[in-house]
């Protein structure tokens, strides 16, 4: 049942975003979340218990709000002591399920998330602001690398380049964004990543655009495509924002998922990391402003992104996990 519900995520965010928001806010109370745990907890706890017996880890690292409570229960039922570490992967508005005060360590990405954790009775000594765990391949381009990458992908080196992405599933109104930026002739070029959305990719391929447009399906070269681009266009997902920050490119947010992504828009705009441009006309205007060589807007947003990014957060998180593991390692050796 858990897997079936998980498979509904992409259809819901594509076709019924308000419904997702209703689910998020309804479940974000103490009573409602307790009911969710009661329904799904036993099944998930059984899976975790089996993994503990099979792998015998010193630390359980949770990256999902539904896993903290059940993981703790599975640990309590296991043969020896183990650590529980929670890495929050939402950016600002974090669901109640993320904050489990009995976790040995809770890693949050922002100061706002820290305040939420403390408000929900987390021990201040057990919460650290370390950023989002982003793949180390996401980094600012080296000197001359942007031009080299554009040549590699068959792009013009001297043209303002826009990367449009809907994540691995190609979700969001990607085709509408491409139409808004490429139907007429403009002084820029587009790179469109459709992910696993084959229907979207065929739709983009069949269209005749006046502005140069390069079309990809699912790729493993997203870090390189970001370093080749001047700006990223996408929804306000925490991973997308974190990757853009680590690469040092501004992001134009076109939409957000009600619930955990609502406050991400304010974070992007108020922190000076990018622009919010819902709708075709606002998106064209935002890109035109960024592509205008007579203004400093693009440079200002780029420098701000570089200044506040935490590109090595995954290494800091890994170090904390290893340190926690060492405190439980002796218990594991004694039980073997």
Question: What would you note in describing this structure?
Answer:
This protein is of the alpha/beta class and 336 residues long. The protein folds into two domains: 2-135 and 313-335, Rossmann fold (3-Layer(aba) Sandwich), CATH 3.40.50; 145-308, Glycogen Phosphorylase B (Rossmann fold), CATH 3.40.50.2000. Helix content is 50%, strand content 12%. It has 15 helices and ten strands. The strands form two sheets. Strands 7-6-5-8-9-10 form a six-stranded parallel beta sheet, with helices on both faces. The chain has a four-stranded parallel beta sheet with strand order 1-2-3-4. Strand 9, helix 12 and strand 10 form a beta-alpha-beta unit. Helix 2 (9-15) packs across helix 3 (17-27), helix 7 (145-152) crosses helix 10 and helix 8 (174-182) crosses helix 13 (280-291). The two termini are 35 Å apart. The mean pLDDT is 88.
Features:
336 residues, alpha/beta, Rossmann fold, six-stranded parallel β-sheet, four-stranded parallel β-sheet, 15 helices, 10 strands
What layout of secondary structure does this protein have?
Layout: H1 2-7, H2 9-15, H3 17-27, H4 30-55, E1 59-62, H5 67-77, E2 83-87, E3 105-108, H6 111-119, E4 127-129, H7 145-152, E5 160-165, H8 174-182, E6 188-193, H9 198-206, E7 213-216, H10 222-228, E8 231-234, H11 238-247, E9 251-253, H12 262-270, E10 274-276, H13 280-291, H14 297-308, H15 313-335
Parallel strand pairs: 1-2, 2-3, 3-4, 5-6, 5-8, 6-7, 8-9, 9-10
Helix pairs in contact: 2-3, 4-5, 7-10, 8-13
């Amino acid at each position: 049942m858990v897997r079936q519900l998980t498979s509904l995520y992409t259809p819901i965010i594509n076709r019924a975003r308000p419904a997702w928001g209703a689910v998020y806010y309804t479940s974000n109370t103490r009573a409602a979340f307790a009911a969710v745990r009661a329904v799904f907890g036993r099944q998930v706890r059984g899976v975790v218990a089996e993994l503990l017996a099979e792998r015998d880890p010193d630390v359980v690292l949770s990256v999902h709000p539904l896993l903290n409570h059940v993981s703790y229960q599975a640990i309590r039922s296991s043969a020896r002591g183990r650590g529980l570490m929670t890495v929050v992967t939402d950016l600002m508005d974090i669901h109640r399920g993320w904050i489990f005060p009995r976790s040995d360590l809770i890693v949050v990405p922002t100061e706002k998330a820290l305040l939420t954790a403390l408000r929900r009775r987390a021990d201040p000594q057990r919460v650290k602001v370390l950023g989002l765990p982003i793949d180390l391949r996401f980094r600012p381009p080296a000197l001359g690398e942007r031009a080299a990458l554009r040549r590699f992908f068959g792009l013009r080196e001297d043209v303002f380049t826009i990367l449009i992405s809907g994540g691995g599933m190609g979700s969001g109104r990607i085709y509408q964004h491409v139409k808004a930026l490429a139907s007429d002739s403009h002084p820029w070029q587009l790179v469109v990543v459709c992910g696993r959305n084959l229907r979207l990719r065929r739709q983009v391929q069949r269209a005749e655009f006046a502005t140069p447009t390069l079309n990809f399906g699912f790729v493993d070269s997203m870090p390189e495509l970001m370093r080749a681009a001047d700006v990223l266009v996408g929804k306000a997902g925490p991973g997308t924002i974190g990757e853009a920050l680590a690469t040092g490119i501004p992001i134009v947010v076109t939409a957000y998922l009600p619930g955990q992504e609502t406050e991400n828009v304010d974070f992007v705009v108020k922190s000076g990391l990018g622009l919010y441009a819902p709708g075709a006309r606002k998106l064209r205007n935002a890109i035109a402003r960024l592509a205008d060589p007579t203004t400093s807007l693009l440079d200002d947003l780029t420098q701000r992104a570089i200044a506040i990014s935490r590109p090595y957060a995954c290494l800091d998180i890994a170090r904390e996990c290893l340190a926690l593991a060492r405190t439980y390692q002796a218990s594991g050796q004694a039980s073997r």
